[in-house]
């Protein structure tokens, strides 16, 4: 019987940020599982204010390379390159919030209104996220990092490497994606990127972290 704890610990030590990949394609069934890990991820208030686009178009990749200093080699060598998009204007009184409730089986109008009032307080008072569209977008963008982490862990369990990417001009990336019809600029924007593939060589630097007791404590 496989010791799941040992397997998970080995997975966490295997995962590292890989920037150059060898010429080897990820099997479709493995890629589907990684993307399913994103699809099935949790999100704040169950909104699912995200989309995941596997970018295959070489012309778009070339355009992105010019403004994505953190993704140049990954765009050239990765087996798959995922654009992680976050919803804009996901307000408590918007259609996406209402549809998320219906999707979860909450259909009674009174029940929906009660839940939306709770979300109104959450957004306006608890999180103070309605002060600007930027703050509201940052809330949905944060949710995408839950899916990002799940994708990377799933990939590592399958022996597949990855690298999360933030090193790019967000405004210019959004312009390119909108120009090609990948996004509707008024509804969503780029949150981050993820490259997937198989490492060309092992990393030069050891896999290090702060001492465990510096970052994990118990308050009794």
UniProtKB/TrEMBL annotation:
Specify the species: Streptococcus didelphis
Q: Mind telling me which Gene3D superfamilies this protein's record contains?
A: NADH Oxidase
Q: Does the keyword S-adenosyl-L-methionine apply?
A: no
User: Any stretches that span the bilayer, and where are they?
Assistant: none
- Nitroreductase domain location is 15-198
**UniProt entry keywords in alphabetical sequence:** Flavoprotein, FMN, NAD, NADP, Oxidoreductase
* PANTHER family on file: NADPH NITROREDUCTASE (PTHR23026), OXYGEN-INSENSITIVE NAD(P)H NITROREDUCTASE (PTHR23026:SF125)
The record ties this protein, via Pfam families, to: Nitroreductase (PF00881)
CC cofactor: FMN
Supply the name of the protein.
Answer: NAD(P)H-dependent oxidoreductase
Q: Where is the signal peptide?
A: none
Q: Which CDD domains match?
A: NfsB-like (cd02149)
Q: Of which family is this protein a member? A: Belongs to the nitroreductase family.
Q: Does the keyword rRNA processing apply?
A: no
